[in-house]
Design brief:
Layout: H1 10-17, E1 25-33, E2 36-41, E3 45-50, H2 52-57, E4 70-75, E5 81-86, E6 92-96, E7 104-109, E8 113-119, H3 126-137, E9 142-148, H4 156-166, E10 172-174, H5 183-189, E11 195-200, H6 206-214, E12 238-242, E13 248-251, H7 267-270, H8 272-278, H9 295-301, H10 307-352
């Protein structure tokens, strides 16, 4: 396999050339579990460790390699590989870590497509879908919604219509992984030269889809619970697979809680309908509550805008504003740490001299 088969292009080639290191080789991270990585290079394919300097210089885990990243590796005479540098990312899908902490967790890097998989059973949730679409709009990748388990849905057209009402201008693909229906449409989206990441809840059918696209069983699957149609976490790490048609697909563990990471501007794409209405409000700083001349409230009263969608917009807007406050404080702390680190390195260098 060549580097081009794994998404190598001029963007990454230029970044790699700037390293000016003849003893380094480019490779793509295809698997990450804790601090254990697998990479695919021109001549090397296997496990790689992190260089101590790369690990030490990283202020957060988001500055370390993730699946989909292009890195510079150094191969030893014994056949081992070490990741010495992380190349710039073209796109990155991130989330805030679960819990009370504020820290970026990279789901996948350098992806062209994010496929949100949602079951047409108890997994169907428009508010969760809006949350996914908001996260994707910050990533630089294109979203696709995959509705699995059409065999369990009595009115598919109605469900697709509901999804299209919140996933504006986003492709919606119905499928039944159980019966193999709709799989070719997914394969067409993840075509030659494209990298996609598959996200969704446990039990949505992600592992089953991977197995169907590959034509063999590589990911374990398990039946969903009958009481709530949810599955247990079977996939415990992120891994990239090369499909027979040449596309690359990253499988990821099911996400129980998707906390956003990014700025309020990410709402503009995911909630373009609400933002368009807001631009028609009489006052530019309209809070869309009870202000005179509010076009958003007028649309709500006229039935043009659903109350649930407006409430979802408000919830995510509040969450993102709170997040931006925390991120601002973190950026200042991060800059202070870097300055301290640089000063320490200058001091130790002078002592050695």
């Amino acid at each position: 396999m060549s580097l081009q088969d794994y998404g190598w292009n001029e963007f990454f080639a230029e970044a790699f050339d700037k390293l000016e290191a003849s003893d380094l080789d480019p490779a793509r991270v295809t698997r990450a579990a804790a601090n254990i990585f697998r990479v695919r290079g021109e001549t090397y394919h296997g496990q790689a460790t992190l260089a101590g300097k790369l690990r030490h210089d990283a202020v957060t885990s988001a500055e370390l390699p993730a699946v989909g990243d292009w890195v510079a590796i150094r191969c030893s005479a014994t056949g081992d590989a070490r990741i010495d540098a992380l190349l710039p990312r073209r796109s990155v899908l991130s989330r805030n870590v679960a819990g009370a902490r504020t820290s970026e967790q990279v789901v996948a890097a350098n992806v062209d497509l994010v496929i949100v998989m949602m079951g047409l059973d108890g997994d169907f949730n428009l508010r969760r879908l809006e949350r996914y679409l908001t996260a994707i709009s910050e990533s630089g990748a294109r979203p696709v919604v995959l509705l699995n388990k059409t065999d369990l849905c009595d009115d598919l057209a109605a469900r697709v219509g509901e999804v299209k009402s919140v996933a504006l201008d986003v492709p919606v693909l119905p499928a039944s992984c159980k019966h193999g229906d709709g799989i070719e449409a997914v394969r067409a989206e993840v075509g030659q030269g494209r990298t996609a990441v598959l996200v969704g809840s446990s039990g949505a059918g992600k592992s089953t889809l991977i197995n169907l696209l590959l034509g063999k069983t590589v990911q374990p699957t398990r039946q969903t619970r009958e009481d709530d149609d949810r599955g247990r976490h079977i996939t415990t790490h992120r891994e990239m697979f090369r499909l027979p048609g040449g596309g690359l697909l990253i499988d990821s563990p099911g996400i129980r809680e998707l906390q956003l990471w990014g700025g309020e501007r990410s709402l503009s794409q995911a909630f373009d309908d609400v933002e368009a209405l807001a631009r028609a409000c009489r006052f530019r700083d309209c809070g869309h509550q009870s202000e005179a001349g509010c076009a958003v409230i007028a649309a709500l009263e006229n039935g043009v805008l659903a109350a649930q969608r407006l409430e979802s917009y408000r919830v995510l807007q509040k969450e993102l504003r709170h997040l931006e406050t925390k991120q601002s404080a973190q950026r200042a702390q991060k800059q202070k740490w870097r300055e301290t680190h640089r000063e320490y390195r200058r001091f130790t260098k002078k002592r050695r001299e």
